[in-house]
């Protein structure tokens, strides 16, 4: 089961993902790195997934919490 509260906490710990006035907000490479960190924290066996599987897991997470 997806832990929505943990996901929210992980995002809150990474202000460049949502602070639009931050200089880092426009840094796509940084934001991609931060999303990968979140994936590692909230998706079981993230390190074992291939790129396509990570993409699918990310999309599933997005739709699950929407």
Report what the structure shows.
By secondary structure, the chain is mainly alpha-helical. It is globular and about 35 Å long. The mean pLDDT is 84.
The gist of it:
The protein is an all-alpha fold and 66 residues long. It contains 3 helices and no strands.
Keywords for this structure?
66 residues; mainly alpha; 0% strand
Layout of helices and strands:
Elements (H helix, E strand, L loop, with lengths): L3 H9 L15 H15 L8 H15 L1
Straight-line N-to-C gap: 15 Å
Which overall shape is indicated by the principal axes computed on the Cα atoms?
Answer: globular
Number of strands: 0
Round the mean pLDDT to the nearest integer and report it. Answer: 84
Radius of gyration: 12 Å
């Amino acid at each position: 089961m997806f832990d929505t509260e943990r996901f929210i906490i992980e995002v809150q710990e990474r202000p460049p993902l949502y602070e639009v006035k931050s200089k880092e907000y426009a840094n796509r490479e940084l934001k991609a790195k931060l999303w990968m960190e979140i994936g590692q924290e909230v998706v079981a066996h993230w390190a074992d997934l291939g790129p396509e599987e990570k993409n699918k897991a990310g999309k599933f997470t997005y739709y699950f919490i929407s």
